[in-house]
Amino acid sequence: MAGQTVAASAPQGAPARPSTPNGRVPRRPRSLIGARPWAAACFLLPALVVLGALVAYPIGWTVVRSLFGADGFARFVGPGNYVNVFTDHQTLTALENNAIWVVVAPTLATALGLIFAVLTERIRWGTAFKLVVFMPMAISMLAAGIIFRLVYDQDPAKGVANAVVVGVHDTFFKASAYPGAHPRAGSALAASDDGGYTTTAAVSPGTPAMLPLVGIAPTTLHGAQQAAVPAHCPSGAVCGTVWLDFKPGGGGTPGKIEPGMKALSGMRIQAVRDGHTVATATSAKDGTFVLPASSVAGGPVRLSLPESNFTAQYGGVNWLGPTLVTWSIIGSYIWMWTGFAMVLIAAGLAGVPRELLEAARVDGASEWQVFRKITVPLLAPVLVVVLVTLIINVLKVFDLVYVIAPGPTQQDANVLALQLYLSSFGGGNDQGVGSALGVVLLLLVLPAMFFNIRRFRKERSR
Amino acid sequence: MNRRLAIGITTVALAMASTACGGGGSSTAAGGATSSGVKLPDLHGQHLQVAAVWTGPEQQNFLKVIQQFDKLTGAQTSFVPTGDDVSTFLGTKIQGGAAPDVAFLPQPGVLAQFAKAGWLKPVNSAVDKELSSNYSSGWKNLGASGGKQYGVYFKAANKSTVWYNTSAFQTAGIAQPPTTWAEFLKDAQTISDSGTTPVSVGGADGWTLTDWFENIYLSQAGPDLYDKLTKHQNKWTDPSVAKALTTLGQLFGKSSLIAGGNRGALQTEFPTSVDQTFANPPKAAMVYEGDFVATNIASDTKAKLGTDAKFFPFPAVDGGKAPLVSGGDVAVALKDNAGAQALLQYLASPDAARIAVQQGGFISPDKALDLSVYPNATQRALAQSVIQAGDTFRFDMSDQAPAAFGGTKGQGEWKDLQDFLANPSDVAGAQGKLEADAAKAYGNAG
């Protein structure tokens, strides 16, 4: 673990400290140190000691440790831990997620950073805007994780993401009045294929149709009236009552309207014959409804309470569910790191010669052409630096995933660094496998590291 | 860890909730022997150290117990809090040569591990005699390892309690809480018909699900199969496991019976699962977990224990005996001296149990203790279930399993049962995953 962390952060430090021994020494004039090797050794010693103790030694130790089993250095397992790493389904999920992370997160953060940087150059309050976008960088990953754990909360009253989704959804689709209402087992109503309920027997005019439902707390029916049997039914029409067939405290005869039982008003009732809806009615304040004789004449009908009466409140998106959890966490990462990309790109932008842009504009290039043909190519070196830095950063991502992903979907959100922690300390207590994961992670970071170092060299030699 | 904390807070709340017996511990001083006739040696000038995980009121409560011990023997006993990771704390202390005289261990697995390492001292005949007369053999044997008696279970936890909102039961017209699983399901449907969701499940915390399973399995398959599964002598692909999961699926498979549906339950953490059951209006009528639920009720809700919030023992499944899944803390001697043995002897006596129990939030497995000592009806009933279970109780299975299987967020049994909650019809799939994870974890643990 230690080896991985230190090694991975080294390339970030590299641009700031170009005094890497083999990088700079040969280019110095020979006369200065070349003649006195002991002086060179003296100057290099502190750096070598620190690097050795903090980078080389942990890496070496981790590599050696990865060849041993869970119980310390007692059992040599050779490549066993690596076989374990590449066959374990948890680690494979982690690898897959890491791939998604590396492709998506740096690209999006850099793209957004570029857009923000270019646009804020043009507006008056650019600095204020930059400040706001950059602000998340001031928060620790852990705090950001906790914030986003709340943002993605399933309950719209807590999670702002679902509050927005539910708010938008409910503007277009109204929730039904009676979610959760259902008939008692063995009553005259049975579930139909469309999610509603239909009478098991045909209903004919003359006898009132009783449609008892349960499953609603009486206390939630504000202002509901006592249910009633339809008083006068026009001849030939089908009449009936929809009511809450439940008495607080239990008791009562199922299927019978009794004092204290509340009416379910506003319920849509359909008369169905041979699969066709022939009439529709809505229950009145006392729960009664009338299906006019003109439409139900010509044979018995079945009464159906369509699903629209019962659709549950829209619950929002399951942000932290198995399918979305990785993407949600990537979203929080982008929220944090776009500011970083933006600031670096804006700095690069300041170095782009104005004359070139002006010349292009004078030549009649549109703003889009200026951006695409001049700004972006001139910024390319900066963009690459930002991208590579973010890739290295993303490979190590741990805190956000550990904090945001809830227990049931932690494995769906798994990444290598988290798997490394889990197998070393989080219950597995197998530091052999953990070390192997650390080595794998280091190998993954190495290409990005070499790429960065090579680029810096090339730049210097230019 | 969660559970540890939860139990800790329980005591706080129950201690506050219990009304009677203020300062009862200090007035019962006797001479050299306790009121029940336990003869303790004279330990004047001896210094003893006791280490346990307890903090806050739980610690205060226990300090009263050792004050009385000091008064009886003349010893000077000090308390050392261990922090949450008891075995690591004690391991470093022992290896550093500064072991406390007596320590409380949270799990039988730790006791076995320490005994194997030779860190524990067997109890002497006086302690053994005290244990034999005051403890059922089940509780006594939990403190033994490799044929030797090492520990005294001073504190017990009752993890077979279903807590319910009395007004929700009243509204639904349920006068008597269910005693069998069939009645439980029927009542759940009745409550659902009354407009309240019957059961709240804290599925975001995997350990609540392992406790559900353990209760059903213990009652349905019986203690012998339970022991075999605990030691992984039986595989999780065993038909008895399939039966228990199918039974659990009768509840988990009907999303209308679970607060928030299965998806909602998976995002409900344990504290929320309790809070929403005793909120107004309640989002569920009952919630299953151990005696520490009382803490959450007392501290996070407005419901009053004993009137608004009551519990009933976990129902018996398929004609089995009603299960009692327990937890507890065991006192062991880490040093071979008279003081440590005397303290164990004292802790095994009803006198020590009485002082601890009187202050509330504490259940003693000591069967010689008169139940009337408990400060309120809820505590008394919780203790009664523990004592009545005799030797048929079983210690929490997941607490005895290797941590990678039974004690880690997002892994092993926790994760597999969460997957089962998400998809309760796939019993065979759940068994396959459980067995694969168990084989790996038990294999690694040696």
TrEMBL record, chain B:
Keyword terms, alphabetized: Signal, Transport
Indicate yes or no for the key word Cytoplasm.
no
Family assignment? Belongs to the bacterial solute-binding protein 1 family.
The identity of this protein, by name, is Extracellular solute-binding protein
Cross-referenced Pfam families, in alphabetical order? SBP_bac_1 (PF01547)
Q: Which domain of life is it from?
A: Bacteria
InterPro entries linked to this entry:
Bact_solute-bd_prot1 (IPR050490), SBP (IPR006059)
Residues annotated as signal peptide: 1-22
Per the record's keyword annotation, is Manganese included, yes or no?
no
Identify the species of origin.
Streptantibioticus ferralitis
